[in-house]
Amino acid sequence: MGSTPLHRVRSWLASVVAGIVLLGGLGLAPAAHADDAFAPVPVSVSTTPESIGAGGQATSRVTFETSVPISDFYVFFRNTVTGEWHRGLTQGAFNQADSTYSFNVVFPPSDTAPGTYRAEFLQFTNSAGQEFGYLRDGSLVHNPGAVPTSGTLAVSLAGLDFNYNTPFDIDRPHTSGFYRPYLLATPYSMSLFVRLSDGRLGLYPTDGKATWLQAGQVGTGWQIFNTMLAAGDFNGDGENDVITRDSAGSLFLYPANGQGGWYPRQQIGWGWGIFSSIFAAGDFNGDGHNDLLARKTNGELVLYPGNGRGGFLASSTVGWGWNGMTSIFSPGDFDGDRKPDVLARDSAGNLVFYGGNGAGGWTSSRVIGQGWNAIAKLGGAGDFDGDGANDVWGIDTSGQMRMYYGNGSGGWKSFGVVGWGWGGFNSVF
Description:
Layout: E1 2-5, H1 11-16, E2 21-24, E3 41-48, E4 51-52, E5 59-65, E6 70-79, E7 85-95, E8 100-106, E9 115-126, E10 131-135, E11 140-142, E12 162-164, H2 180-185, E13 191-195, E14 201-205, E15 216-219, E16 225-232, E17 241-246, E18 251-254, E19 266-269, E20 275-282, E21 291-296, E22 301-304, E23 316-319, E24 325-332, E25 341-346, E26 351-356, E27 362-369, E28 375-382, E29 391-396, E30 401-406, E31 412-419, E32 427-428
């Protein structure tokens, strides 16, 4: 991927936005061999609505005077209160019929402060591979190919400004696949899927160091499922997969394709409606393949060992009396013995640790927390802060995302709020 340092555009802009680079050549459009007759000019810009809040969405548009389609497209925004700069990766598409590029801006979810965002710089590449950059006042300041100008004046970018009312808004970004570069960079870092009420599925990846990265939409129509879980690599292809259950009790595997999307789903089970809870258990029996644990309404806990090819081996009962638990999940290895464990919350709000023995059974159990009834949603987070110990996430009744940091020996190191506005999601996993 080619890049051009921002100081080539305007030295004062580089001094303000230290470390930001102009990006080009992402390959979103086929290369064209004919030169553009003139530099594309933004002649109209708009963002609707102007104010964006939780549950809202802003569609922005730039209309160009151009004879070659626009491909890669970036807008640099600045928060007028904090002064912080954001290079918005603006996922969208160019409509050649009306020369309009429509997009939604993608911002990191938890570190984007509310406030007014000014569009200070616009950069794009056309399908001939030529790069151009315009300042807020419409000045063409980046034209390394010295493409002739048409004489048409560019409009100010002020029409792209907007007010951001919440630091947490999955409704803005739209994309058809994972943000794969983040997943490749830190394959063992935590990522969380979220589902909105309209069935859209979003992904919030992290950098493995307690920081959220850019979120994106990775699916639609997921409202048909009553259970969804991140199953790890379930079919043995090296990619982490998702397993879902619909209202008919059918179980489906959604294999990740490693290129930012999904392979076709596969039905891997029938009659799973008898279970009141299903969760991923890692390699619970120690055979090298990821497994599932499922609780029946009578409290029986059943192990379904994965066969490493997207299916199951023979099931076995591994516990009774689990119907008194209001939440059950596996945080992975929580006590440092390199064997997956299980945490469960009882009706009194106690959080109970169940140590896995690595062979499909248990070592010991003990209460490791009280008052957990204040948490509406609860789950295993993997290692959120990169200290080598697995953590636990919880969403409280106000919608705050809390992270409970494990100490690597079956207890806690600390906890903190790492996000807001998570109460709007009807599923997190």
